[in-house]
């Protein structure tokens, strides 16, 4: 005899004999009601004798103790990897089986657990059930709310027992402990690498063998790990399932979202042991350490030059090898201007045309995805700018942006050049400055022989080729491309005291920088010649500017 569904529901309802006086939830056993009541009272009677942590349920304490004992009772039947909790084993087994039984009804995403599906579904509904009691901000996940609450308390609840470093999130503490305090027992016989886990060593050995068993059916790319193939497939589908609750940015990978969230929280859990710098993720720290070691891992296969960054190598190849081989210019289909292939792509964006990226919240459209993301922040609460400067009340979207701005008030310049005494407020400024010490000038003008170290300098130079000069002098007929050059002209030509005098000769100047440049002409020998006319200059930049005066076809510099 089988009961009808309605009868089954009545049976279940009758079994719930114990009800909570606060929220009216029903339970079949008094023990379950007692455990539930602790959620309202905050009572945590179960104490860990090792670290002092408390728990509302005995099962929570039992799971926690495994952290200290190292016990992992749940083993994978495919690879024998062990886990301290059953749900982590279920998540791991999905890597082998590929089974994700919980599909999203709105998109093509599948999930291993119903809780993961529930959190994901909020990206479609916009539901944010976790509300901050202090400022009213709402979030789709309780973990994000927990991170947010630490802004109000300035508390880092997770501390390292070895060195005392504290962190806002438990995963940051775990990652810190692995990197700095865990012993790496599994060593590679072919190189000096060592690993915390045997499975990591096994995966590493594929680097030496070159084996990539997982291939993409769409483009043929192959990968060492199934997770690498899974991440790669998102490029073809265009799916970005992970979104930031603060600024609405979307990401393909959960790790990218995790790294992005540290921009809002300001947490930098990876400090450098040599200097005072700290970083959002371990890869940035690893790249930074190469500055101290002098390592340059990226080498050019055509000339052997070595570089610290991959993008610097790409710029070098484009500047020194690609453009040397291919100097052919192509006409713009709209205005007919002749440009090199890479310059033509940038040039086409200046002409009005179709904007392929559309905002889903308003009628705005954009040429670039980057511009649309910046626009999306205007729809979030406070325009995506929730961090204010205490000096001038300016608003910023992230803690790091606020920190950079505060330096304009304090005058702090934490980034120093190791080759000279220059210092900078931002790392980008130091990066651009370092190009001055080298010979590389990756940005060149298509209309003359001018080259420079930054995109901003190239943009300013391109305006000198423009027919219209928008800043005329009211006292004479001169016109200028920039307002600051007009201002300098007014002081120099039509008035202004020259209060900076040279102690070597009788020359006077209106600006301190002009005096400094002049004194260098006395101190430094003129050692940079013009290869066309032989004239000598004290600085290489003066020689470059002088070369522009000669006809282009006669210049060899």
State the share of residues found in helices, binned by percent. 40-55%
Annotation field: number of helices: 20
What is the CATH topology classification name of the domain at 298-518?
Answer: Double Stranded RNA Binding Domain
Find the CATH superfamily of the domain at 298-518: Classic Zinc Finger
| Shape label | elongated
Count of distinct strands = 38
CATH class category label of the domain at 298-518: Alpha Beta
Low-pLDDT residue spans? 1-13
Structural class: alpha+beta
Proportion in β-strands: 5-15%
Distance between the termini: 98 Å
Radius of gyration: 32 Å
Mean pLDDT: 75
Describe the structure.
With 557 residues, the protein is an alpha+beta fold. The termini are far apart. The chain has a two-stranded antiparallel ribbon with strand order 1-2. The chain is elongated and about 100 Å long. It contains 20 helices and 38 strands. Among the domains are: 298-518, Double Stranded RNA Binding Domain; 527-557. The longest helix is centred in the middle third of the chain and has 16 residues, at 310-325.
């Amino acid at each position: 005899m089988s009961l009808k569904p309605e009868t089954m529901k009545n049976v279940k309802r009758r079994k719930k004999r114990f009800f909570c006086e606060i929220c009216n939830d029903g339970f079949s056993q008094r023990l379950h009601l007692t455990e539930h009541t602790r959620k309202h009272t905050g009572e945590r009677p179960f104490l860990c004798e090792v670290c002092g942590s408390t728990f509302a349920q005995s099962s929570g304490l039992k799971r926690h103790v495994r952290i200290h004992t190292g016990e992992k009772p749940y083993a994978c039947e495919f690879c024998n990897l062990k886990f301290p909790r059953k749900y982590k084993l279920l998540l791991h087994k999905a890597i082998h089986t590929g089974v994700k039984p919980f599909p999203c009804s709105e998109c093509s995403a599948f999930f291993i657990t119903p809780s993961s599906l529930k959190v994901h579904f909020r990206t479609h509904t916009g539901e944010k059930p976790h509300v901050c009691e202090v400022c009213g901000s709402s979030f789709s996940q309780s973990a994000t709310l927990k991170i947010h609450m630490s802004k109000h308390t300035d508390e880092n609840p997770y501390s390292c027992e070895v060195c005392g470093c504290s962190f806002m999130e438990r995963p940051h503490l775990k990652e810190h402990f692995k990197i700095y305090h865990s012993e790496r027992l599994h060593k590679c016989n072919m190189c000096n690498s060592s690993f915390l886990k045997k499975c990591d060593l096994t995966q590493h050995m594929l680097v030496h063998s070159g084996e990539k068993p997982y291939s993409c059916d769409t483009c043929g790319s192959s990968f060492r790990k199934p997770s690498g193939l899974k991440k790669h497939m998102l490029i073809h589908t265009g799916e970005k399932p992970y979104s930031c609750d603060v600024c609405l940015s979307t990401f393909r990978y959960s790790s990218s979202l995790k790294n992005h969230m540290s921009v809002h929280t300001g947490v930098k859990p990876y400090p450098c042991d040599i200097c005072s710098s700290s970083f959002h993720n371990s890869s940035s720290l690893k790249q930074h350490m190469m500055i101290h070691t002098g390592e340059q891992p990226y080498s050019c296969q055509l000339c052997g030059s070595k570089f610290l960054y991959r993008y610097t190598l790409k710029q070098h190849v484009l500047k020194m090898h690609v453009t040397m081989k291919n100097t052919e210019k192509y006409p713009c289909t709209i205005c007919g201007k002749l440009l090199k292939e890479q310059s033509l792509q940038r040039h086409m964006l200046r002409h009005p045309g179709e904007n392929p990226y559309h905002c889903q919240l308003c009628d705005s459209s954009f040429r670039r995805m980057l511009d649309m993301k910046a626009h999306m922040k205007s729809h979030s609460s406070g325009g995506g700018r929730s961090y204010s400067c205490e000096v001038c009340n300016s608003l910023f979207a992230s803690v790091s942006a606020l920190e950079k701005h505060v330096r304009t008030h304090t005058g702090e310049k934490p980034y120093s050049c190791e080759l000279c005494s220059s210092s900078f407020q931002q790392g980008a400024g130091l990066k651009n400055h370092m190009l001055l010490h080298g010979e590389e000038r990756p940005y060149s003008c298509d209309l003359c022989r001018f080259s420079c170290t930054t995109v901003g300098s190239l943009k300013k130079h391109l305006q000198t080729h423009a027919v219209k000069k928008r800043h005329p002098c009211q006292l004479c007929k001169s016109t200028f491309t920039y307002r600051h050059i007009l201002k300098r002209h007014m002081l120099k030509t039509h008035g202004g005291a020259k209060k900076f005098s040279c102690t070597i000769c009788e020359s006077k100047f209106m600006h301190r920088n002009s005096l400094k440049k002049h004194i260098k002409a006395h101190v430094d020998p003129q050692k940079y010649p013009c290869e066309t006319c032989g004239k000598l200059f004290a600085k290489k930049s003066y020689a470059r500017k002088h070369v522009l005066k000669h006809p282009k076809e006669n210049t060899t510099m």
